[in-house]
Structure formats: C-alpha cells, structure tokens
Amino acid sequence: MTQQPSSAAHEPSVLTRVWSVLGTVVAPATFVTAILFYFGYVTTRAQYLYFGVDVDLLGYSTQEFVMRSPQPLLVPMLAVLLVGAALVLADAALRRRLAGAPEPVVHRWTLASTVGGAVVLAVGVALIVAYPALAAWAPYPLVTPLVIGVGSAGLAYGLTWSHRRRATAAHAAGADGTQGPTPGTDPARTAVLLLVLTVVASLFWATGTVAEWTGRGQAKALARDLGGLPAVVVDTPQQLEVGDPAVVEEDLAAGDGAYRYRYRGLRLLVEGGGSLFLIPERWSPHGSTLVVPLDDVRVKLRFVNDPP
After folding, report:
1. Is pTM, for the whole model, over 0.85?
2. Bridging pattern class, strands 231-236 and 248-251
3. Which of 27, 116, 218, 266 has the highest CB neighbour count under 10 A?
4. What is the pLDDT of residue 29?
C-alpha cells in the first residue's frame, strides 16, 4: 500500500500560527510603538534616577520616549532577530530530517524536548519563588527570564511535535478506513500558545533589564565626566541649602542687593516640566540635585562656557 503524505507535514509551524494570532489581536504599528515607548521610558527612568530625578517630573511626551529607545533596543533586537532566524532554520532542517524517520526516533525527540523544556521551566519557576533569597544577586533579573523563556520554548516545541504525531496517526487511520480520534479542541495547542506568550513576556522582562542597565550605565558614564553639560551660575536673594562642597557660595552683600547669594560649580542635567535640574560639577551618588523653576523671578541663571 502506498504511504499517504502526512497532513502534519503541511501544517504551518507554531511560529507562523503565533505570529498570525498576534497580528490579528494587535496592530503591528501599535505594537512597535508600545515597545519603543516602554524601553525608552525604562532607559530614561534608570538614567535620571541615578541622579535622584524622577523621570515623571520631566513631562516627556510619548514621542520623546520613543526617540530615546533605539540605543537600548539595538543590541537586544539584533540578538532576538538572529536567534529567531537560527531557530526557524533549525526547525526547517529538523522537520526535513525527521520526515522519513522511524516512529521511535520521532518519539524520543519529542519526549526529550518536552521533558527538557519542562525541567528548565521548573528551574525558572523556582528562581521566581526564591526571589527573596536571590534579590541581591546582580544577574538575577536577566538570568530568570532567560531560563523561563528557554524552558517555555522547549516545552512548546515538544508539545507541537506531539500534536504533529497525533495528526499524522489520525491521517493514517483515516487513510486505512478506520475511524480516527474524534475531532475536538486539543488542549496541547492552547498550552503551546500560552507558552509562546510566556516566551514573549520573558523577552520583555529580559530586554527591560538590559534597558535599565543601559540607562544606569549611561548615567555613570556621564557622572564620571560632566564637562559636556552646560555650566550654570545661580544668583538668588536667599541662601540655598545645596549641601555639597563642590558648589561654591559667594556672598554678594556689597552689590546692588537684588541678589544676595551666588552659586558656582553647578551643571545643567536636564530641563523638563518647567524646571531646570542642576547637579554639582563633581558628582557623587550621595550628591544633591537642585530644582529651579523657570518661572521663578527670584532666581537669576547664567550659562557660561567655562566655569570661573
């Protein structure tokens, strides 16, 4: 008897099915904009939080956060695209190799992928449960989502192969004239979709961690050399409690009296929300940030090229 071609061989891959569902639920443009906004926000928040400034006080728009996202997203996006391309090619090669393989070989591969993915996923869940004990471990926010993502992907792939084997068996039973399994909803297919969404959530977590580290790294690099920030001289009628030895206070009592005190040694960190955020030119993590409202007529600001 001539062997009939398997219907499972013509099924779209799990990646194709998941992409179709995501494309139906979320418009691509909206999805991309949401990603750019999220990672721009995470990076900017981590960068300015290092200097003690809450990014929500700056009043940035969605467009401004989107414009700040390409740098922190570049490396993770390249990594995801390259890994995704490699997985698609590996899946195609494996499908061709196992197309004519004996049933025991396919069964062993399916079992190995399913059990291996479940074990790795269990390790990821254990890492989440153990968070109170591992919170101080620096790589935790990156290792945990990667372990969960790899385990979920392996388990989803094993379940996908298991579904293909059942579809092949049902097709063969129908070709032989016997009644195959009763059609119905396969829980494995729902589980695969949920696992793939878990992979997507894990990628968000991991890439968000990279974006946060990038923002903090940018802040530390800036703190090591503040020479690129504009120098500012502040004149006020009242004494300011700056509390930083890098900021020099000068008494102007002998002047015209409009402004009694002058402060040097400040740099403009950022402007936003109608205020200027000034920091000492020799910054330390224990330094202070001076907030000067732009509409405060009692404060006179002068930007200088070189601090006097």
Report:
1. no
2. unpaired
3. 266
4. 65
